[in-house]
């Protein structure tokens, strides 16, 4: 192998090394597990997730309930409980909302 070929290979390897080093220095993973070291939750440690959380997350504000106070009913994950809750009369839904979500006793 000639000295010129060796220099070409060296220059190529050096270029790849520099590109990889730049990428690792300038990027930050967004996955939760990559930030988790056991002291805090992963998302709370990621500066990029903190900065861009509003762009990376979506909050569904749509509710099928006629009164927005009862929107919590749409968030039920148990189908049987959901059907029972939404079939309650408005008076009972109001009472349940007052007790469970608005602090009345």
Structure description:
By secondary structure, this protein is mainly alpha-helical. It is built from 6 helices and no strands. It is about 60% helix and about 0% strand. It is rod-shaped and about 90 Å long. The mean pLDDT is about 75.
Provide the residue-averaged pLDDT: 77
**Structural class based on helices, strands and sheet pairing:** mainly alpha
Number of strands: 0
Span between termini: 87 Å
Query: What is the approximate shape?
Result: rod-shaped
What order do the helices and strands follow? HHHHHH
Helix content: 55-70%
Low-confidence stretches: none
How much β-strand is present in the residues?
A: under 5%
Helices, by number, come to 6
Radius of gyration: 28 Å
How can the largest sheet be summarized?
A: none
Q: Quaternary arrangement of the chains shown?
A: single chain
Q: What are its keywords?
A:
6 helices; 105 residues; 58% helix; rod-shaped; single chain; mainly alpha
What's the gist of this structure?
This protein is mainly alpha-helical.
SSE topology sketch:
Layout: H1 3-26, H2 32-35, H3 42-45, H4 47-56, H5 79-86, H6 90-100
């Amino acid at each position: 192998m000639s000295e010129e070929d060796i220099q070409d290979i060296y220059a190529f390897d050096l270029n790849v090394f520099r590109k990889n080093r730049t990428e690792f220095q300038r990027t930050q993973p967004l996955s939760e597990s990559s930030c988790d070291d056991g002291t805090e939750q992963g998302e709370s440690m990621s500066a990029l997730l903190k900065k861009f959380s509003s762009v990376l997350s979506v909050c569904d504000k749509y509710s099928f309930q006629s009164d927005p106070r009862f929107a919590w009913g749409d968030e039920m994950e148990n189908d049987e409980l959901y059907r029972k809750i939404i079939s309650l009369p408005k008076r009972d839904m109001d009472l349940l909302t007052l007790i469970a979500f608005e602090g009345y006793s």
